[in-house]
Amino acid sequence: MMTFVLADTPLLSRATLDRAEQLRGDVAALHTGWPTAAVLRIAKGGRFRVDGSALVLDPATDLAAEPPEEAVFLGVDRGRHVWAVFDKQLDGSAATELGDLRMLGGRLDDTSAGMITTAVALLGWHNRARFSSVDGTATRPTGAGWSRMSASGHEEFPRTDPAVICLVHDGGDRVLLARQQGWPATMFSILAGFVEAGESLETCVEREIREEVGLAVTDVRYLGSQPWPFPRSLMLGFAAHGNPDAALTFADGEIAEAHWFSRAEVRAALQAGDWTNGGDGVETAAGVRLLLPGSISIARGIVTAWAG
């Protein structure tokens, strides 16, 4: 059976920011660091500003004289505290560009990518956790943005939803790629789905692939993981073996079509670009135009590793 490993750490997993967890409950230290701190502003849809390839941060004192309750503490970068806030008025300018991780993530260095990934996930959780899941009362941010407290004293912490993403191959030179309902006709990727309660990751891989394309898989093998803040998932990458002669069925309605592609076709598609560059993919032997995911997705890293 063919085996492979990820050649590189997924882009959004390369975080080098010091999260400085010990400071989250130290109100005095956070206030002391505020005058020299930087603030990352996040707009609706998880958009942020870049100047070329540099992440735009603002002086904290431009926002307020002290840390506002809705700000979240991301960590420490080169001795400077870094915070994030949601800013629905944020827009680009002649000197900056406004975009999201899918559009701009490939430009960022490891520290900046970690800042954005954490900020988008954490602020997104706050927007959806304003009332306690236990007693329904309103909650307020605590712990420098890393928890919320209800009036009754119940503390809640940010959720992360685990999801598996799996490349199915035939043990040789063919791989199964699928297109979801609603995707453009050229866009294909590997299969993914959320982990259910009481389910192991390997069982989830088997269930999701069976539900989405009707295929039984074996030799499920873990490859690596990547945070995916859309809105707050953790993608856990796998590879598995499937029979290319088995019939494919799309019973749950999520997948519009799926095909087996050769290694040569996948390599050509990787050379042709990705979803973010507006290309139309490459023509395959089956008459399907194949365009693959962008560089910030672990899906591309897995496909690239298999193709190599």
TrEMBL record:
Nudix hydrolase domain segment(s): 158-283
Enzyme class: hydrolase
Pfam families in the record: NUDIX, NUDIX-like
Domain of life: Bacteria
EC number: 3.6.1.22
Record key words, sorted: Hydrolase, Magnesium, Metal-binding, NAD
InterPro entries assigned to the protein according to its UniProt record, in alphabetical order: NAD-cap_RNA_hydrolase_NudC, NADH_PPase-like_N, NudC-like_C, NUDIX_hydrolase-like_dom_sf, NUDIX_hydrolase_CS, NUDIX_hydrolase_dom
Cross-referenced Gene3D superfamilies: 3.90.79.20, Nucleoside Triphosphate Pyrophosphohydrolase (3.90.79.10)
Cofactor: Mg(2+); Zn(2+)
Gene Ontology molecular functions: hydrolase activity
Catalytic activity: a 5'-end NAD(+)-phospho-ribonucleoside in mRNA + H2O = a 5'-end phospho-adenosine-phospho-ribonucleoside in mRNA + beta-nicotinamide D-ribonucleotide + 2 H(+)
Database matches in PANTHER family: NAD-CAPPED RNA HYDROLASE NUDT12 (PTHR42904:SF6), NUDIX HYDROLASE, NUDC SUBFAMILY (PTHR42904)
Family to which this protein belongs: Belongs to the Nudix hydrolase family. NudC subfamily.
Identification of the protein by name: NAD(+) diphosphatase
Upper lineage: Bacteria, Bacillati, Actinomycetota, Actinomycetes, Mycobacteriales
Gene field: nudC
